[in-house]
TrEMBL record:
GO terms for molecular function: DNA binding; sigma factor activity. The keyword Ribosomal protein does not apply. GO terms for biological process: DNA-templated transcription initiation. NCBIfam families: sigma70-ECF. PANTHER family: RNA POLYMERASE ECF-TYPE SIGMA FACTO, RNA POLYMERASE SIGMA FACTOR HI_1459-RELATED. This is RNA polymerase sigma factor, sigma-70 family. The keyword DNA-binding applies. Belongs to the sigma-70 factor family. ECF subfamily. It comes from Desulfoscipio gibsoniae DSM 7213. Keywords: DNA-binding, Sigma factor, Transcription, Transcription regulation.
Length: 171
């Protein structure tokens, strides 16, 4: 593999991989660190890629493994800091609307962080990264139908958590 080919892979997939980690853990620095670890592992194991799945599926499988290993070794807080999404408020526009938008975004992030890791993974890969059920199944070593059921349950649990948070309750 040439350096330019690896660079193309990195530029194409680093954003989605970073977003996956950020949405899974809510920590910008950790997401950067895990993204770097993922691409290091991709570089080391690229010779073993056999093309049995798409490159994105194979890469997200590595990212999922990196996240799982990190989760096991470092138990971290599952909530975002309260000021995480406030920087958008400095932009032009209605400050009340900006605050409401930031609060809603914060509520969505908090609800996502309170889901079990398996549910969070399915939601992030399907909704935010646009992977198919077949691709998510390959990442998680599950069938597409099992992945569909998991997404349905994850959405249901997400709605419950979101509504509790929106009404002022917390787990």
């Amino acid at each position: 593999m040439t350096a330019s080919a690896m660079e193309k892979i990195y530029h194409h997939y680093s954003g989605p991989v970073f977003r996956y980690f950020y949405r899974m853990g809510g920590d910008y620095n950790l997401a950067e660190e895990l993204t770097q670890e993922t691409f290091y592992r991709v570089l080391v194991s690229l010779k073993r890629y056999r093309g049995e799945s798409t490159l994105s599926t194979w890469l997200f499988r590595i990212a999922f493994h990196v996240y799982t290993v990190n989760l096991r070794s470092h138990f971290r807080s599952r909530c975002l800091p309260l000021d995480q999404d406030i920087p958008d408020m400095g932009r032009f526009g209605d400050p009340v609307r900006s605050l409401e938008k930031a609060e809603n975004h914060q509520l969505i992030s908090l609800a996502l962080q309170q889901l079990p890791a398996g549910y969070r993974t399915v939601i992030v890969l399907r909704i935010f990264e646009g992977l198919s059920f077949e691709e998510i199944g390959a990442v998680l070593n599950k069938s597409p139908s099992t992945t569909r059921v998991a997404l349905s349950r994850a959405r249901q649990r997400y709605r419950q958590v979101y509504n509790q948070l929106a009404n002022g309750y917390s787990d």
